[in-house]
Amino acid sequence: MPKLSPLWLFDLDNTLHDASHAIFPAITTNMNAFIAQTLNKGNGPADTQTVNTARLLYLQRYGATLLGMIKHHAVRAEEFLHDTHQFDDLRSMIRAERGLARLLKRLPGRKILLTNGPQRYSREVMRHLGLHRYFAKHIAIESMHVHRQLRPKPSKLLLRKLMRQERIAPHRCILVEDTSKTLKAAKALGLRTAWVTRYLAVRSDVNANTQTSLAPKIAITTTKRPVYIDVKVKSVHHLFDNLRRLTGTSF
Ligand SMILES: [Mg+2]
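^ thats the input. predicted complex w/ magnesium ion below
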């Protein structure tokens, strides 16, 4: 019996909540400190420019700063993720729209959280948002290994593996994301794509500098719908209005 109901893959940061408000800036600060220490060549921590260059280079080249730090500086993923996701009071830093639980309940099909953030952080955010119970699975960056290699979004290998594990045809999966690179990869595999633009940073430095987001350097004014986007919504609240387009007409 084929699975007829859709499978929703939801990103977390800047899709279900406004990470650019306080969380991403804090992660960037933590990341800068971590990179400065790591690049220390015996003359004290690396300077700001060197740190920024490394962070952005790795983000652009590998899709995640973490991957560059592992590859070029032999850092341990756990250590990097732990140190960069330290917050004084995470709860007070979270900003999100109201009514998300109602929306998730209303959307037909299973939901999986698929985030490049670490498990501990994303669990905590989901708990504060009160959304945990609406997701059948929670896939954080620690679980994104394919053939023993860390393959976070936008890895096609990761998405393919997930489809296989879930035994679902790509066209029955809907990826809900703010990051266009990931949506593009998903579309290439045949998934349906919903682009959430509400939290896209006008200032590219806010969103593009963290490993939890592969956010595009696109200003709000240029968020035209690219061909690999099936539906562009300002907020996840509008997903329901686009259900037909996202799920097809066959169920
Ligand atoms: Mg995101």
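The pocket of magnesium ion is lined by residues 11, 13-15, 178-179, 213 (CB under 6 Å).
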